[in-house]
Design brief:
The chain has a single domain, classed as YbaK protein. The chain is built from 5 helices and 8 strands. A hairpin with a 4-residue loop joins strand 2 and strand 3.
């Protein structure tokens, strides 16, 4: 969590930190409890490309869309099979728990693909690095994060 706040501060961008009850960190429960429209909530999902070596990518998609793991993500990774990373893989790779994963403070070598629909929102709420924090930012803030690429059709 401290790493996420430090990463945001280092970017020098406007952001709002939102405390969250960890029991309500999952997107649907969070949106309902805190009055956030699901279309203004974005999930950061780690995907594992099967191969040797295994390849990972962080994908940022709106909560109202579905990440195209077996189409767009698999093809862009250049692998025959891809799947959602397990909770253990996600934690080991990012240091974050499911429900708190964010595009901020990820490992430098991890590519981050942002679905173009995210960029159309005025503001989005993302994980804050832990299940007890969320971050609200203008989507263009994501363009300042290293390794970010906006991808058309990453989700549907």
């Amino acid at each position: 969590m401290d790493e996420v706040v430090a990463a945001l501060d280092a970017l020098g961008v406007a952001h709002e930190l939102m405390d969250c009850d960890p029991d309500f960190a999952d997107t649907a429960q969070f949106c309902e409890r805190y009055g956030i429209a699901p279309e203004d909530s974005a999930n950061t999902i780690i995907v594992a490309g099967k191969g040797d070596p295994k390849r990972y990518v962080a994908c940022v998609v709106l909560a109202t869309t579905r990440l195209d793991v077996n189409g767009a993500v698999r093809k862009r990774l250049g692998v025959k099979k891809a799947s959602f990373a397990t909770a253990d893989e996600t934690s080991a790779l990012t240091g974050m728990l499911i429900g708190g994963v964010t595009a901020f403070a990820l490992p430098a070598e991890l590519p981050i693909w942002v679905d173009s629909a995210v960029m159309a929102r005025e503001r989005v709420v993302l994980g804050g690095g832990s299940r007890s924090l969320k971050v609200r930012v203008a989507p263009d803030v994501l363009l300042r994060v290293p390794n970010v690429e906006v991808v058309e059709g990453l989700a549907s």
